[in-house]
Amino acid sequence: MEISSDKEYIYTSSELDRQEGALIEEVKAGAGESVPDPDAWLEEDAKRNIVLTSIDMVLNWARRSSLWPVICFPACCAFEFIAAEGPRFDMSRFGMEILRASPRQADLMITAGTLTWKMAPVVRRIYNQMPEPKWVIAMGACGVSGGIFRSSYAVVPGYNKIIPVDVYVPGCPPRPEALIYAVQLLQKKIAREHPMPDPCELIPKGVKR
Amino acid sequence: MTQVYAVKDLAARLEERFPGSLEESDGDSLVVRAGSLLAVMAYLKDTVGLEFDYLNYITAVDYYSYFEVVYQLTSLTHNHTVVVKTRCQGRNNPSVPSVTGLWGGADFQEREIYDLMGIGFKGHPNLKRIFLWEGFPGHPLRKDFVP
């Protein structure tokens, strides 16, 4: 069997392999602690009750009612997601009908399935390519914690080792109802968000008056 | 239904054609010495009446003292099948000849065995890891692998 010579390409095949290996080791080395939820501060009652403006409400309504998931389904939970998208469960009732093949047009990542370390850099790149604001639902036992593969040498123990996660859906796989409930939880979470800056933050800092 | 080719007959033919090529032949399978693997495989593939033209799978077993590579061959012409095994000693650099020249489908499976078991295939055109990444320590399907 003949294979084409490495010389035809800018990088040789083995160079690309080594680069990929180095990238995976880098992701692995940086995955010690779970990434905390960046929106945890939202729980503070005072902030959300006092300074929620009508612009906030409109923005949050628009954002939560048109969640567009990106296509990033590494394993079998994807089928449960497909069922949830299909006519029987019909997730489009909640304004998230459209799956985007391009992460640049999406704002929700539903991580349906086991993530291996070899796939981890790809998923993180997809996440980084999504524009703000963006949210992540960790779907299924593998997405939450690695599931039954948690102790494997090849599996990422939970997506929150790689990217921040907003809502966790347990189950192996979760029923479509569970996924829809997770989306509703996320919508509630988005409704509490605070996209407009505080009026006091609009005042330039360090100005004495 | 695919018939299992009579291993006893096949062993006698191989012993006659390639003396000393067989390590043992029990009821189910032929164990071929690694040195004569390619000659025996080519014979099995090309001889009229045998014509094992389809490679079902390759896999490997770790028996601690040696590795065994297992091939299942089928003849789509005659609808019969046989299991051929070969052994390689040592845990540092065990190797057996590659059969990619005979059956192209062996390519990825030999890479998989190389990746997970650490058995080299001499003559393979592109022998590198296929599931795990470059730089992964060790070969995880070996019995003595500790993650």
- List low-pLDDT spans of chain B: none
Average pLDDT reading of chain A: 82
Structural class of chain A: alpha/beta
Largest sheet of chain A: 4 strands, parallel
Distance between the termini of chain A: 80 Å
Short description:
Chain A is of the alpha/beta class and 209 residues long. Helices cover 38% and strands 7% of the residues of chain A. Chain A has a 4-stranded parallel β-sheet.
Structural summary, described in words:
- The complex is a heterodimer of chains A (209) and B (147).
- Chain A is α/β, with parallel strands linked by helices and 209 residues long.
- Chain A has one domain: 3-Layer(aba) Sandwich (Rossmann fold).
- Chain A is built from 8 helices and 4 strands; from the N terminus they run αααβαβαβαβαα.
- Chain A has a 4-stranded parallel sheet with strand order 1-2-3-4.
- In chain A, helix 5 (120-129) links the parallel strand 2 (108-112) and strand 3.
- In chain A, helix 3 (54-64) packs antiparallel against helix 7 (176-191) and helix 4 packs across helix 7 (176-191).
- Chain A is globular and about 55 Å long.
- Chain A starts with 12 loop residues before the first helix and ends in a 7-residue tail after the last helix.
- Chain B is of the alpha/beta class.
- Chain B has one domain: Beta Polymerase, domain 2.
- Chain B contains 3 helices and 8 strands; from the N terminus they run E-H-E-E-H-E-E-E-E-H-E.
- In chain B, the strands form 2 sheets. In chain B, strands 1, 2, 3, 4, 5 and 6 form a 6-stranded mixed sheet that branches. A two-stranded parallel sheet of chain B has the order 7-8.
- In chain B, a hairpin with a 3-residue loop joins strand 2 (22-25) and strand 3.
- The longest helix of chain B is centred in the last third of the chain and has 12 residues, at 106-117.
- Chain B is globular and about 45 Å long.
- Chain B starts with a strand and ends in a 25-residue tail after the last strand.
- The mean pLDDT of chain B is 89.
- The interface between A and B is medium-sized, with 18 and 16 residues.
